[in-house]
Amino acid sequence: MGVTLDDAIRLARELLERCPNTKKGVSRLNYCREIIVHGAHVVEESRCSVSLRKAVEVSLKEREGRRRRTLCELQYVCRRLLREAEDIAGKQLRNITPQHCHNMLSSAFSTPHQFCKARIVLHSVFACGIRHGWCNCNPVDAVPKPRLLEVEINTLPWEKIRRLVRTSQLPTHRCCMPALGLMLWAGVRPAEVKRLRWDDIAWEDEVIMIRAKHSKTGGSRCVTLPPVLRRWLGKLCRGRHRTGPICPKNWAKRWLTLRHIAGVLPWQQDVLRHTFASYHLKHYKNLLQLQIEMGHSSPQLLRTRYLNMRGLTKANARRFWSPKEWCP
Fold first, then answer.
1. Whole-number Å distance between alpha carbons of 221 and 209
2. Which residue, among 137, 55, 142, 143, has the nearest Cα to 102 in the 3D structure?
3. Cβ proximity of 90 and 52 under 8 Å
4. Residue 201 backbone class (left: φ over 0; alpha: ψ -120 to 50; beta: rest)
5. Which tens digit of pLDDT belongs to each residue from 265-294?
6. Fold of 52-142
7. Do residues 327 and 235 make contact, with C-beta atoms less than 8 angstroms apart?
8. CA angle at 69 for the pair 221 and 306, rounded to the nearest 5°
9. Is residue 121 very low, low, confident or very high in pLDDT (cuts 50, 70, 90)?
10. What is the pTM of this model?
11. Which of 40, 47, 136, 257 has a CA positioned 20 to 30 A from the CA of residue 316?
């Protein structure tokens, strides 16, 4: 077996010396046998594992099909984690503890929002490790989430909605009308609307198809095409027979100019999506339907972040969804 008698005696002696006083009824020989069996198992498991750095590499490679922006964010978080915790990066995945994970996240990201986003990414790395058999559990599960204090996002005031809609109908800004309508009356995210095309609108089924490759979350969804938006896109934007992208060229500059001329700056990110959600619930009073329209897996995010009924009246909610109000 490649071990001399002298080596075997020496190993047996070292093993006996390391054995503590055994419990009553357990012989030293049996105790040594347990150490050998369990020790061999631990050594075998360690050989089947990989370093955290290698697991990160594999995890990122498995996500190569994601959108470029998403992939860049994942790569940024992973690089920062590995750079700020070089001593942990070389450890085998199954030997990393929840405390290691907490220390790594805390040293790399200081704000609660950054910590939570990085925690999700690190959790996915260990999930990848479990799938490959490099570890048996996910230590990130035991890392507590910091409490997030959500910043209140108000709906766009009624008068500003009117100014934005009216300004978009001026000849100079008419090319922005379709995207504005989709964000305001369908709750489509700004990043999603830039990827939409006219053939993503199913006129007969009265839905807007947000494909997985266009969605922020990577999941597809169908958003109802309400009467006001159907008339806005079909009649005013003449969209039933149009092709190509929804947004015009130089969209970012045109969208900023429209908001500037309408006098609705400064601007909160996603304010139109929040406006859509609040007016939808105020008028239709159906939280489950709104959750589906928004593409959320649960209504919790709606309750804690999106819905803001302050200043909303039943009369304005009815006018918000009325085609006659916006599409004479």
1. 6
2. 143
3. yes
4. beta
5. 999 888 999 999 999 989 998 888 888 898
6. DNA polymerase; domain 1 (1.10.150)
7. yes
8. 50
9. very high
10. 0.66
11. 257
Q: Are 227 and 323 in contact (CB under 8 A)?
A: yes
CA gyration radius, the chain: 29
Average pLDDT over residues 114-142: 93
Using CA atoms, how far apart are residues 328 and 320, in angstroms rounded to an integer? 14
Q: Which pLDDT band, with edges at 50, 70 and 90, does 325 fall under?
A: very high
Separation of alpha carbons 53 and 45, rounded Å: 18
Rounded-to-integer distance, Cα 271 and Cα 190, Å: 10
Mean pLDDT of 291-309: 74
Superfamily designation of domain 158-326 = Intergrase catalytic core (1.10.443.10)
3-state secondary structure of 51: strand
Tokens encoding 244: 């190509």
Q: Which two tokens stand for residue 165?
A: 């809609």
Structure tokens belonging to residue 70: 């998403």
Q: Where are the domains of the chain?
A: 5-47, 52-142, 158-326
How far apart are the C-alpha atoms of 176 and 250, rounded to whole Å? 11
Helix or strand run (H / E) with residue 71: helix 68-84
The CA–CA distances, whole Å, from 118 to 51, 134, 148, 220, 248 equal 19, 21, 14, 24, 35
Burial of 207 (0-12, 13-18, 19+ CB in 10 A): middle
